Amino acid sequence: MNNAPWPDAHELIGAVAPKLADLSMEVLFADIWERPGLSPRDRSLVTVAALIAMARVEQLPFHLGRAVQNGVTRAEIGEIVTHLAFYAGWPAAMSAATRAQALFEEAAP
After folding, report:
1. Which domain holds residue 17?
2. Helix crossing, 74-85 with 60-69: angle to 10°?
3. 93 with 52: CB under 8 angstroms?
4. How many angstroms separate the CA atoms of 28 and 10, rounded?
5. Exposed site from 25, 54, 72, 95, fewest CB < 10 Å?
6. Could you report how far apart the first and last alpha carbons of the chain are, in Å?
7. What is the helix, strand, coil percentage profile of the chain, to 5?
8. What pTM does this model have?
9. SS3 annotation, 16-66
10. What is residue 1's predicted lDDT score, i.e. its pLDDT?
11. Which pLDDT score, from 0 to 100, does residue 107 have?
């Protein structure tokens, strides 16, 4: 059972890409995300911005949720999306906004 704040990559992709799953768990999550040079909140800000800029919307729901867990507010996410509309492109920002809205609606009481 995975009690970590991230999904078990072996369950998600292990059957297709076992080495990628290993690297995700051992290097990305257990090392890179845990390094002391940036706070988890800052890492979330950078990750969300990068995913928006690269239009990687499939990865956004997890990382938006993690950003909120790491202390990024919904208002700050809205500001990130708006700011990136001018640097990453309008379609990327609109796609990110719809993913964020869906996530926030799911989490609403």
Report:
1. 1-35
2. 130
3. yes
4. 13
5. 54
6. 28
7. 70, 0, 30
8. 0.88
9. CCHHHHHHHHHHHHCCHHHCCCCCHHHHHHHHHHHHHHCCCCCCHHHHHHH
10. 41
11. 85
Q: Which of 60, 73, 66 is nearest to 102 (CA)?
A: 60
Residue with tokens 């949720």: 65
- Residues 101, 64, single domain; the answer is yes
Q: Please report where in the chains the tokens 């719809």 appear, as a residue.
A: 98
Q: Report the CATH number that the domain containing residue 58 is assigned in CATH.
A: 1.20.1290.10
Handedness of CA 43, 3, 61, 70 (dihedral sign): negative
Low-confidence ranges of the chain (pLDDT < 70): 1-4, 109
Residues 63 and 96 in one domain: yes
Structure tokens at 73: 């507010």
CA nearest neighbour of 103 among 83, 74, 76: 74
Q: How is residue 14 written in tokens?
A: 């292990």
Cα 17 from Cα 66, distance rounded (Å):
24
Residues 20 and 1 grouped into a single domain = yes
State how many domains the chain has: 2
